[in-house]
């Protein structure tokens, strides 16, 4: 038996999780890939990860070195990420990014190894001259002459734990934020904060060892270490799919008696409304987590009618993972008790050890019921950004994570996200949530996309402006949209002007770039 | 909102657990006491603990001060222990101990406050002159003139969190070992190692938020922070009983639809064999943990027939809590698969982050399949004993907890406890487990108690000796017992001599004092 750490107090890392599951569930399926022959038990997964790690060590990759991954949702992704058990730092790359953006992230992380799925090899070839510090390019599912072969590497190295000592303060991954402002920042996630988050995923039965799970978020997303790693930690079996296809998902749920799904609200709206839904037996589902935003109330009601009262959602950033949870029981209260429907717009209550405050610009607590920036202190917030001391200091002012989100609490202690701090509009001394105005405009049948921003006003300081793109073949005038807002909003919140455009500017992951929209109005004269 | 820690990384403590549960389950029952009107929801429990903590602060009790408790299993016990949320260190006292032993423990701990149930007030009065450092005697369930009243204190102080900053390395409790050798030692348990253990109690559904639980171990036992605290942490409701009475337990299980029981094997044997059992509906039970030792195979078979395949057991000491688990699934494999029955004699496999080795006297790993001292490295082993630097160094040699137990592993990775290290007999170069010989002798119908020890032998180094007490009205000679052993044991393991006595010497909690038995033979001439 290998001798591990010599310190008195043991520290749990991803290595412990992998070894434990291989020991307890050697023959249980850990990861499956429908439509392929690829599947691993917990023991096989650990063995493949050990072989891969030993191969990387053979190539000269040392503890703390960064290894980047450019791939879709394939089982090898889980294996590459899991080499963090020997202290490698994996860096997921969003395959929707362009060459220049990939170059920036790979170079900023200082990765010396890049894993590439064959379909992206040409993208990497097109930028490889700009990646001077990368020593190893490894093709995951092919054997091109100019790259190493993943399968040959795995087959050539022993499957014993490499015996690298890892502690809870070692870095596990760098998660690059998509960044609607400025350049992407590498969020440093360590073993300690990641495991602290993963433990929450087991609290009160969120993930159980008898679950059969599917997370429909791409693996380059933070959901990888927040959800897929949680499936492994809690001994559940999980499936990976390459794209969202409702019919294929129904088929999978029925065939594999799936119990657990996660995805964004639009996915569950599609599944609820899909005409083929009733052809399948979906009764095995016991838990659905929707991620990223609240669901429209009527859509949620229909989803609960169809799938049962099994929906939950939480709130967190890459910088702290989930801090709050709106449980299935909360959803039921909201749907059944008179006057409680508002709870559906909340993100729930803080989880174990999550301390939360709502503060003003000087970090003073706002009065109860007031709006303030949401700040957190907990065991799973990050300690910083990769090579960004100034941004780190700003985000972690006074030792609390400043989310940049504006929130408020109701009398029952539920948290509501009002807006991004930078998107809050202050007009005539009133705080106006751009998100609230956008929600109203989005409900207009002709509107495809919209962004609400504050623009300079001599009288009000700022005034509300909406920029709108219409659905194809639909029409609406600025006045009609303003009138529509007056019908549904307090008068001071209505846009003073509406600009109609063909489309709105977006970043590579599809988020609307409000910063760019604002610039034209706020540029120095 | 109070400002908590100013460090960047949050640390979870019992305070977080109490606050979290009060927030998530304000109206759910936390602790109940059958036959009394005493019950608290999670919010009420937290409020009462806050009032009690504020009262202690009012009396001048500061963070880090020790508060001792002498009481049976009453709800106030949970409240007193939970004042650790403000940094108090609670010291449970075994009410079976005599005045002199209580005096030693209270003084060794340096407690300045002693909580006493009324029935033990005279015991405390008889020793209070020997307790010069105790400033406050608090009677839990009465108002004697010479003590403070628990209920008056709780009623006189506000129920807000006192706002004392506690971190994971603060001490939570001192657990005094019963000690079959030497004086009791105070095992230092901190918030970090305790919470690390408590998290394990949730893994793979061991305790769920919909459980209704009863732990039949006394609250002065380590089970208090290992099991009762786990009920609170995982949002289950639990009941407290003052004594083990099978009929009352059946009645409680039926009435409250209990799901979860813990106790020692003899309790479950009594419940299984009790004639009234079939008068009750016990079908709500889903999990039974037996603690302290394996169960005889036939007794376990009958218990599984009666209660279902819901039994599990683990292995741990006060110094490390549970490190291994033999799951319900393991029990099923053992009972159903040919050749696997031996698994029932094991204590299972190590849990998450529990690193285990079997070593010789020089801490070298023994060959696979061999016997060795069981040593552990994990996040929930202690860092030491209270004011005992030498014993600490010995127990934590090379940073690993030395259990003093001899174990071996089978080919499937299950751990078997062979003996206490100090009880292992080395005769003619063979390791002989005293426990194995005792198990055989105990099976003899005339034997009430027995202890097997090694005594000096010129030829063998040590030789096996049994000391036996017989059942009333039964007879057996030494030769008959030796012959019985020859029938059931390898010849080299049989006792060379058997001494028959009226009774065996025991310590206050009823453990046989082998050390005293050995002394006569090993005393210097």
Q: How would you describe what is shown here?
A:
2 copies of one chain form a homodimer. Chain A is of the alpha/beta class. Chain A is globular. The mean pLDDT of chain A is 91. The interface between A and B is large, with 49 and 49 residues.
**Biggest protein-protein contact in the assembly:** A-B, 49 and 49 residues
**Integer-rounded radius of gyration of chain A:** 24 Å
CATH level 1 class label of the largest domain in chain A: Alpha Beta
Query: Percent of residues of chain A in helical segments?
Result: 25-40%
By DSSP (H or I, 4+ residues per run), the number of helices of chain A equals 16
Outline of chain A: globular
Flag low-confidence runs of chain A: none
Could you please say which CATH topology of the largest domain in chain A applies here? Rossmann fold
First and last CA, distance of chain A: 71 Å
Main pleated-sheet profile of chain A: 9 strands, mixed
Beta content of chain A comes to 15-25%
**Quaternary assembly:** homodimer
pLDDT average of chain A, as an integer? 91
List the strand order in the largest sheet of chain A: 2-1-11-10-12-13-14-15-16
Number of folding domains of chain A?
Answer: 3
How would you classify the helix and strand content of chain A by structural class?
alpha/beta
Kindly summarize this structure in a few lines.
2 copies of one chain form a homodimer. Chain A is built from 16 helices and 25 strands.
